[in-house]
Amino acid sequence: MRLPFLALFLLALAGCANPGLVAESAPDLHRGAVAAAAQTDATFAATNSSGRSADMDRLLLAAEAPEQALPTISNDQFILVIESETQAQWRDLFAAITGYTGSLVKLADPALAAGVGADLTAAGNSFNALAGGSASGGAIAGFVGTVGSAIVSAAGERKAINVMGKVDPAFYDLLTSMADTLGKTDDDGLRGTVAGTWNDAKLQVLRTRYGSLPRGPEYTAARRLLLQDYVANLQQRDAALAALANLRQSMIALAEAHRAIVQNRDFDANAWLDRIDRFADDIALQLKPK
User: Measured between alpha carbons, how far is 42 from 287 in angstroms, rounded to an integer?
Assistant: First the structure.
């Protein structure tokens, strides 16, 4: 739990922040949140798509094994690397996050500021609804609810920087906890789950089939094909893990950008927001079919 004096310190900083920085940075913060949401959708979809390709290889190999029964084709044979429930949880969370950052854009613009309190309340209630159900996931449900309460509490503020100052401690904790949920390493969090699914389910059949081939030069061609498939699957696994690692960095960058704006650190805010764009480019490159 964060120390109370930290929240007071951030609020004090908010009071002396540069309004021009907030007006300039709020749209960039919102674009960063939208970009991170798009990165998440693309990463999850591409990871599952490459996983289905690996499952096709597995079924074809099983069909070639005369000692095994011909496998039936069913949805159960295609193992989702990232489950549909997890995808929905993240999609709902980003809808709430972009609802909040979109409200900041309006509040920072005098021409749009009227009535934003209702938008902020709606955004806060979106977080609260997620925290009250299962959509936020058990590991971060508490952080989701704290953000919702903070936004609703700050909805009456007339300055975007004051709203951000009140919301920042909870918002920072939520985004960094989302980053940790993705996994600090390939053995942790969602990255660990993805690695385990590939290693234990999708790559194992290739190892088993390779080991079952009789010795001798007449099987060299078959072994070569298996090794080529194995390397291709390794590349797909590693690309998915690298994309998740970059997505984690985008979560951290969004948290740090929000905090830098609150603390009137314009250079840092811009640097963190620029990182999200770079991470998006890296993810697109990593997930590009080889």
Answer: 9
d(CA 121, CA 288): 40
Could you give the C-alpha distances from 125 to 119, 167, 246, 253, 274, in angstroms and in order? 10, 14, 30, 25, 30
- CA 12/CA 33 separation, integer angstroms: 25
Please state the pTM of the whole predicted model: 0.80
> Residue 191 is encoded by which pair of tokens?
């990255």
Q: For the CA atoms of the chain, what is the radius of gyration?
A: 23
At 71, give phi and psi (nearest 5°).
Answer: -70, 145
Model pLDDT for residues 21-36, shown as the tens digit of each residue: 666 788 889 999 999 9
Which sequence spans correspond to the domains of the chain?
16-287
Contacts of residues 208-217 at CB distance under 8 Å and 24 or more positions apart, as own/partner, are 209/61, 209/64, 209/65, 212/65
pLDDT at 2 (0 to 100): 38
Q: Tell me whether residue 29 is exposed, middle or buried, using C-beta atoms within 10 angstroms of its C-beta: 0 to 12, 13 to 18, 19 or more.
A: buried
What are the Cα distances from residue 34, in Å, to 93, 120, 250, 283? 12, 17, 11, 15
CA distances (Å), origin 26, targets 34, 102, 215, 257, 269: 12, 8, 65, 10, 10
Assign 180 to helix, strand or coil: helix
Give me the residue label for tokens 């960058």.
253
Residue identified by tokens 């499952």 is 55
Contact 186, 241 (CB under 8 A): yes
Question: What is the spatial distance between Cα 278 and Cα 179, in angstroms, rounded to a whole number?
Answer: 17
Spatial distance between the Cα atoms of 54 and 16, rounded to a whole number of angstroms = 55
What amino acid occupies position 162?
Answer: N
